[in-house]
Amino acid sequence: MFFARKMLLVAALIYFPATSLYIYYILPPLYFHAITYSMGCLLVVIATVYFFLELFRTPRSISLLRQPSFWICTALLFFYCSSFPLYGLVNFWAENSPIIIQNFGLIMSILNVFLYFLFSIAFLCRMISPKYIS
User: Do residues 11 and 43 lie in contact, with contact meaning Cβ atoms separated by under 8 Å?
Assistant: First the structure.
């Protein structure tokens, strides 16, 4: 399992400079970087799937509802799996009708609301309510 973590770290370290070079020097201006976004989506999805594999291989039982890391990884997995095909094809949709662009914006807004809703659950699930003796 250490090998998988090391490979994810190496891939992330290679991804950032390669993406920067591609966006600033190769990609034409006002053009969305669909290739680098897609590669970034794949990296995030691979990392979250690896987290879930490690989580479900643990020998002891834990309550997932009380784990912020579970909610954050669930949010990231859902958002990037859903936005991967949408943003991957956004350059092909640029010349289409404005209705398609509006629907794309609406879908992305819904995905963002769901992403930040799950982030909110992650930050709130660790709050311990005070127990009063009455």
Answer: yes
8 within a domain of the structure (yes/no) = yes
Closest listed residue to residue 118, CA positions, set 75, 82, 83: 75
pLDDT in tens, 72-104: 999 999 999 999 888 877 777 767 777 887 888
What are 24's two structure tokens?
A: 């600033």
- DSSP letter for 27, please: S
Total domain count, the chain: 1
- SS3 for 39-99, per residue? HHHHHHHHHHHHHHHHHHCCCCCCCHHHCHHHHHHHHHHHHHHHHHHHHHCHHHHCCCCHH
Structure-block tokens of residue 10: 């190496």
Residue 56 has pLDDT above 80, yes or no: yes
Handedness of CA 6, 11, 13, 14 (dihedral sign): positive
Q: Could you tell me the CA-to-CA distances from 116 to 50, 73, 83, 89, 121 in Å, in that order?
A: 22, 12, 14, 24, 9
In which domain, by residue range, is 96 found? 2-124
> In this structure, is residue 100 part of a structural domain?
yes
